[in-house]
Amino acid sequence: MFSRLRERDGLMKATLEKIRNGLEGDTAQNLCSSLAQASEDVQQCVASCKHIAEGIRQQNHFQSENEEWFLVARVIDRVCFLVMALLFFLGTIGIFLMGHFNQAPSMPFPGDPKKYLPK
User: Fold this and answer.
1) What is the pLDDT of residue 94?
2) Count of other CB atoms within 10 angstroms of residue 33
3) Taking the model in full, what pTM does it have?
4) Mean pLDDT for each consecutive 10-residue tract of the chain (119 residues)?
5) 112 by DSSP, 3-state: which?
6) Terminal Cα distance for the chain, rounded
7) Taking a C-beta distance cutoff of 8 angstroms, is the pair 36, 27 a contact?
8) Taken in order 71, 77, 78, 79, is the CA torsion positive or negative?
9) How far apart (Å, rounded) are the C-alpha atoms in residues 60 and 54?
10) In angstroms, rounded to a whole number, what is the distance separating the alpha carbons of residues 55 and 51?
């Protein structure tokens, strides 16, 4: 059992050394060729990391889009608030002005000789 474990560690060490040697050139081509020679586990790990990175990138894009819609909603909310506040203010002023300018007519009932206005 331990002899197989040594072989496995030896294989991984050799693979990691190949990858490390490939990175010394700092070229993407060397990295791709060294990953192509790596074991299946390393290739699966790289594929999983790519998948996770793509998922996070899509999630960030979705969140930024959501933030833009929240900003649009805030602007619409503020505009509606200002319009309603102005409408309520003008309506209140109108109600008070109607009460102020509302005067009883001097002759409310035509043909009635009595004056209803105060003296």
Assistant:
1) 95
2) 14
3) 0.42
4) 56 64 59 66 80 84 84 96 98 93 79 77
5) coil
6) 121
7) no
8) positive
9) 10
10) 6
Tell me, what's the pLDDT at 85?
98
CA contacts within 13 A on the Cβ side of 16: 6
Both structure tokens of 104: 């009883």
Closest to 14 measured CA to CA, from 28, 34, 43, 44: 34
- The pLDDT of residue 115 is 74
Report the alpha-carbon distance of residue 72 to residue 69 in Å, rounded. 5
The Cα–Cα gap between 64 and 70 comes to 10
* Paired tokens of 33: 């060729």
Length of the chain in terms of residues written: 119
DSSP at 105: -
State which H helix or E strand residue 49 sits in: helix 40-101
